[in-house]
Please model this.
Amino acid sequence: MISVAVITLSDKGAAGQRADTSGPLIAEMLSGIAEVRFYDILPDEREQIRNKLIQYVDRVDLILTTGGTGLAPRDVTPEATLDVVEREIPGIAEVMRAEGMKKTDRSMLSRAVAGVRGKTLIINLPGSPKAVRENLSVILGAIPHAVEKIKGDPGECAR
Model:
C-alpha cells in the first residue's frame, strides 16, 4: 500500500472560509492502492508549503498537492515544489496538461510540476474537484510503478 500525504493549498480553505472538497476526493480516488496518512490545508505561502513538503518527505511514498498551480499572484505551489524536488518528472505534468486540453484550452495555463526528493514522489494537482478528478485519473495507473522505481525496484520497465 502506498503511503500518501495530501496538501490542499487555499487561502480561504486555511482560513476556514471554504470547505475543501479536492483533498477528500484525492483520498477517495486513491482508495485501494494507497493510504492517506497526512492531510493538511495550508495558505498559499511558499515557505509554508516548502516546509510542509520537506516535513513529509521520507515519511510517505507520495505527496499530492491540490491548488495553487495557476497564474494568480498567490499561486506558488510549483515554485515551492521546485524548491524541494531533486529531480523533476516533466512527463507527469505534461500528460495532465495534454489530456486537459481535450476538455478546455485553459489546461495550458497550469504550471503544475512533479518530481522526486529522496524516495518520495511529489505531484501538483489543480485545485478544483473537477480538474483533480480529470488529472489524477490520467496519472493514477502510473503512480504505483513510479513509486516502486523511486524506491529502487530493479525490475524491468517494459510491458
